[in-house]
Task: structure prediction
Amino acid sequence: MSVIDWKQRGVGRYEPDDRAALDAFQRAHFGAEAIQLCPDHFHWLFEEPPEREHEGPQLWLCKRNGAVVGQQGGIPFALKVGERNRRASWAIDLMVAPEWRLRGVGPALSETHSSASDLAVSLSMTEAAYKSYKRAGWLDLGNVPTYLRVIDPLRCLRVSPYGGGLAKLVARIGKPALATASMGYGLSAKLLGVRLVEIDRFDYRVDDLWEAASPQHPVIARRDWAFLNWRFDTTPQADRFRRFYVMRGETVLAYVVLRVDHWKGEPVGVICDYLARPGWLVAAFSLMTELARRQGMVALMCRTLNAQAARPLSMMGFLCLKNGLHTPTRMMVRPALDQPELAGPTGDPKNWFVTVADSDMGFKGLGE
Result:
C-alpha cells in the first residue's frame, strides 16, 4: 500500500477531539510518566511556538477504527540558510504501535510531516525512526558531538560513564593544569572588560545579538527574542534554566543558557544553548567554565554542532566525544520535493549550528 493511500485512510492533523485516543496511545507506548502526557507541556510545545501554523498543531496521527496507531510530531521554526529564511520543522516523537509497523504507517506519517515545510530535520532519533527516515531518503549528517570540560578530575571520573582512555587522559592532564587553563582564558576576558551577568529572562537585546552573530553561521535556526522567550522563559521547565549575558559595557556579546543536572549525585553543568558575536565565543565559554568551577560542578558539558567552535573548545580543554555520553546523537534532514536546492547547504554538517535547544534534545536531563 502506498504512502498516498495511507494518507487517504487515516493520517491527519491532531484535533481536540483526538485527545482521549491520543492519551491512551501515548500512555501505552511512551509510558505513564512520559512528558508527552503533561497538558502544560503539550500546550507549550504544539500551540505556542513562535512559528506556529494557522492550520493547527504540528502533530499528525494515524487512526484505525477510532484508535490512534501512530503519531508524528513537529516543532516549526525559522531556519536561516545563507541569507534567506526558510520554513522548517524539527521531527519529534515518531511512534507506531508494534502491530502496525512495517505496514506503511511510519512512512506515511513522516511524509505528511516533511511535506508541510521547506525542510524537515530530525535530531537524536530512536533506532527505529532512524531506519524509517533512512529508507525514506533522508540525508544522514552524522552525529552531533558532545564537548566535555572536566573541572574536578577525581570526582568526575568517579561518576563518568567512561573508563580506560578518558580516565588516563584526565588523570594525565590533572586538576592544576585544567584550572590554570580555565583561569587564564577567564583572566583574558576580564582584562578586556568582559563580564558575566545572570538575568531572569531574555529581553530585546538578543535581537541585536542575533543580527550580529547569525551571518557567521551558514545554517542556523533563528535565535531571536521571540524564540528564546518561548524556548526558555515560558516553558513549563523554565525554572531549570539559568540565563547569562556576556557583556562589555552595555553591549551583549553573547548569551549562554545553563542547566545544572546531577549525575550519580554530582552536579554537572550543561550548556543548553549559546550564541556569540564573532570573536567572543572563547570569552563566553571561559567565563562559564570559571562559574562552574567556583560553584563546585565536576564538569561542564555542551552538545553542539558548530564547526567554528571545535578548535577553540579544544584549546580550552574541552574533550570532543563524537558519540556522546551514552549513544550517538544522529542528525538527518529532508528537503521538500519542491526545494531540491536546499540539499546542498543543509546536507553539509559543517554548515550547521545546533545545540540542545534545538528540537526536543534538551527536554530531559542527564540520567532521565
User: Anything to note?
Assistant: The chain has a mean pLDDT of 88.
